[in-house]
C-alpha cells in the first residue's frame, strides 16, 4: 500500500476527540485515523510574517499533520475572497452572490503555489496524493511544475455547476486546465460528472473516451462519481446508546410529549435555513391542529463569519426565528428553538433519534451528510421521516426520503404535515431502503473506492498522452 498524503484547505487536528462541524473534516477524519498517512494544509492560524514558508508537523496516532500558517493577506484573498466569495457561491448556483476580483484570484493561485512549494519536497515517488475541494483545484498543476510525478487525485465536495454557470467565472478555462494535471477526479453525483462532461464538450477541451475515462487537454484522467458516506454503523451504535447523554435527556424531558422536528446545518445560505423556517411558519398556519404539538429545533453553528454574506444571513435567520416565534408562540410553547452552537457527536446522534422528522432542505448541496446521519441514527422499529431537498446530492441515493423542492415553501409545509402523519409501516419501508444504502456505501467504501481507482491509475506524471 502506498503512503497516502491528503491535502485540504484546513487540517482538522483532533482536539479532545471531536471533529469540527464541517462535512469534509467529518468524512475524512475517521478514514485517515484508520489508514494513516500525512494530512497537509492550513493550520487555522495566521502567520506573523507576510511570507509563510514553514511546515510544522504533529504526530497523532498513525497520522502526521503537516501544518502551514497563512498570512492575513493570503487568508483574505485566497480563503475569504476567491474560494468563499467566488467559487463557493458560483458552484452553488448563486451567481448573485459572487464577487470576482483580480486581487483575490491572484491570492488563490499564490496560496496554491505556496502549498506546492512546501509540499513537493515531502512527496516520494510511490506516494499517492489526494487533494480535496474547491480551494485547491490548481494544486496538482503546481505540484507537477515543482517536479512531482506520483499519482494525484482530486475530490470535489461541492456541486460542479452546469457550463452556463461555470463560464461566468472569468478564469474558468484556466481552472479546468488545472484539473487535467490529476490522474483521478471524483465528484459527488452523476449529475456533477454530466455537468463536467458537457463543459468539456462545449468548450472543446476534452471528452469521454470509449473506455469511460476522460481526455482533458490531451491528458487521460479517470472521472467518476463517488458519493461520500458516513461511518454508518458506528453512528447508529452511538445513537442507540445516546439515552444516557445529558443533553439528549434534557431535550427529551423538555419536549413533554411534543413531536420533534430537527435541522442541523452550518449557518450557510446554501443550506436553505431561512426558506425552511418560512416553510415551518407556513405549516403552522396551514395545519392549525399541529400548533402546540411540535417543536422545531434548528442547531446551527456560525460559519465563515468573516465573509460579508454570512454575517448578513446570520441576522436574517435570527430575525426570522424571532418573528415566527413572536407570531405563533404561546406561554408554554416555543415553536422554533434556534441554537447557534456545535454539539458533540453523541448528543447529535441522540437528538436525531429523538426527532420524528429530519429537515434537510438545502437550496444546493454537494452531498449533505446530515441526511445520512439522520437516517443512521433512527430507531429500527420506529424510525423518523427524512424530508430531503431534491437539490442535495444525497437525494440521488436516498430514495426513501420525502423529496421536496425548498423553493416551494407551501409544498414543503405540506410535506412536513405528511411526514408527521406517516404511518409506521410506510416509515419502516422507507427507512430500511435508505439504511441499507448508507450501510453499504459508507465512508470506508468511499475512501477505498477512490483510493483503489487512484492506485490503479497509470503512473504517468505530467507528460501523459492518451492512446
Ligand atoms: P458541509 O457543507 O459542511 O460539507 P454537510 O455534508 O452537511 O455539509 O456536513 C456537515 C457536518 O457537520 C455533518 O457531519 C454535521 O453533523 C456536522 N455539523 C453540522 N452542524 C453541527 C452542529 N451544530 N454540531 C455538530 N456537528 C454539526 C461539504 C459539502 C457537503 C458534503 C460534505 C462532505 O458542502 O455537500 O456532504 O462536504 O463531502
From TrEMBL:
SUPFAM superfamilies: UDP-Glycosyltransferase/glycogen phosphorylase (SSF53756)
Keywords, sorted A to Z: Glycosyltransferase, Transferase
Superkingdom of origin organism: Bacteria
Family matches, as CDD domains: GT20_TPS
GO biological process: trehalose biosynthetic process
Reaction catalysis annotation: D-glucose 6-phosphate + UDP-alpha-D-glucose = alpha,alpha-trehalose 6-phosphate + UDP + H(+)
Annotated pathway: Glycan biosynthesis; trehalose biosynthesis
The enzyme's E.C. designation: 2.4.1.15
Single Gene Ontology MF annotation: alpha,alpha-trehalose-phosphate synthase (UDP-forming) activity
Gene3D superfamilies per UniProt: Glycogen Phosphorylase B
InterPro entries: Glyco_trans_20, Trehalose_OtsA
Role: Probably involved in the osmoprotection via the biosynthesis of trehalose. Catalyzes the transfer of glucose from UDP-alpha-D-glucose (UDP-Glc) to D-glucose 6-phosphate (Glc-6-P) to form trehalose-6-phosphate. Acts with retention of the anomeric configuration of the UDP-sugar donor.
Quaternary assembly: Homotetramer.
Family, per entry: Belongs to the glycosyltransferase 20 family.
Name under which the protein is recorded: Trehalose-6-phosphate synthase
